[in-house]
Amino acid sequence: MMTENIQVLVRVRPLNEAERARGDHECIHVTDDCRTVQFVAPVAPDRRGAKSVVKALTFDGALCGSQQSEVFRASKITQLLRDALEGYAVTILAYGQTGSGKTFTMTGPESLDYSDAEQAPLPGEHGAAGLIPRALGELFTMLGTPSHSHFVRASYLELYNEAINDLLNPESTNLQLRWQAKTGVFVENLLQVDCEGVADAIAVFAEGTRNRKVGSHLLNKDSSRSHCIMTLYLPRKDLRGAEGRICFVDLAGSERLMETHTTGEALKETSHINKSLFVLGNVISALADPRKRAGHIPYRDSKLTRLLMDSLGGEGRTLMLACCSPSSLYLDETLNTLHFASRAKNVQNRPVVPQPAVDTQAMLIQQLQATLVSLQEENACLKLRNDARASEPAASSTHTGSSSMSAGSEIAALLADVRQLRTSNELIQRSHDALLRENQQLKTKLERLEKVFYHSEEK
Ligand SMILES: Nc1ncnc2c1ncn2[C@@H]1O[C@H](COP(=O)(O)OP(=O)(O)OP(=O)(O)O)[C@@H](O)[C@H]1O
């Protein structure tokens, strides 16, 4: 099976007003090759007294500035959407310290108002729109409206204090993670909304974004307090092939409690955020290390990593957007992000389009149904011919003795055919019903087995 490393793109935002006013300087720099990030790393003083050294890390891409269209291009979203339409599970994951620009990159600036689903700006209307609205626009440009090839359904969840909440149905909280052979890990009872066109998809995105938990602290006045995942499911209309999907993950940012002066409920939120990011770091470290890769990977230590199992070392295709602040004040956090991103680059996935299991029962039922329909048609045809013959004037049927004899025997033969067809219709109908019952029993049995398997896995 082909392996493929997680793709990593680094985005360095510009210094903000507060940082400039404070006199912070830029401590990282993207070089002209648009792949390398240079930074001044502190080291223990050497004999000549030097305390820092210029280092560089290379990624699949690196950019700075505020141009959203550049991020869209560099992320190769069009190709990723094509992959998802083909049946792959694609994930785009924004990672970085609080205030580093994850939400700006995924959604857009605060000035873009998604608070009213009806009035939400459509992609193309605003150059500052982030990756998600742009990807929604691109998807429907590719599919056309209405789409003839795929259905599009969307879900939007947040992971807040280790509880999964449905952002499209705010009453639906603390949802459970389940597992089944066909889909792997999934969130039970998570609402999936049909999107017929880009306006529907943007309205869904706006509704979920409005319901996200946002808080304010010293490093970011609109800080995400939860990890959010918007997923587009893309089943084919002809029911052939696997259902692809594309997930947009906007992680909450790690933060230093001392600096954000966090207390009370916010302190609890931050501890949960930091803990799940810590587990994410452990999972990435284990997967990035060829000696540990084959051993135990601690996915089960947090819901976030369980949700991302397929994207990290699994069968999906993943792009990580590592967001960084350039401010010298946050050099430590930025170096953490860059080293995390560098490890993530070594994580290998094995992207495959899952082959739908061949359901022989279903195929047999389909064949029987087709036979039944053609027999019914034939039957109706024969009946018509039969009725027509029976109503023909007697004169014409008694034209000659022998022709009357042959017509009579033909009718008798036809009636025998009809009787035979009726009998075989009934037999097919009965075996069809029996197969349906058997199929239902097998499905119930399979669900029971999956539950047992899932519970034993949980233990
Ligand atoms: N590339 C950029 N260009 C201009 N402004 C940016 C850029 N990235 C981020 N910003 C601004 O910086 C601030 C923080 O960004 P954002 O809220 O996206 O950070 P975040 O990483 O999502 O933070 P948190 O983890 O706390 O939610 C916002 O005011 C945002 O508009």
TrEMBL record:
Gene3D superfamilies: Kinesin motor domain (3.40.850.10). Keywords: ATP-binding, Coiled coil, Microtubule, Motor protein, Nucleotide-binding. Residues 358-385, 425-459 form a coiled coil. The keyword Transmembrane does not apply. Residues 5-347 form the Kinesin motor domain. InterPro entries: Kinesin-like_fam (IPR027640), Kinesin_motor_CS (IPR019821), Kinesin_motor_dom (IPR001752), Kinesin_motor_dom_sf (IPR036961), P-loop_NTPase (IPR027417). It comes from the Eukaryota. PROSITE patterns: KINESIN_MOTOR_1, KINESIN_MOTOR_2. One of its GO terms (biological process) is spindle elongation. GO terms for cellular component: microtubule; microtubule associated complex. ATP binds at G96, Q97, T98, G99, S100, G101, K102, T103. One of its GO terms (molecular function) is ATP binding. Belongs to the TRAFAC class myosin-kinesin ATPase superfamily. Kinesin family. This is Kinesin-like protein. It comes from Prymnesium parvum (Toxic golden alga). The lineage of its organism: Eukaryota, Haptista, Haptophyta, Prymnesiophyceae, Prymnesiales.
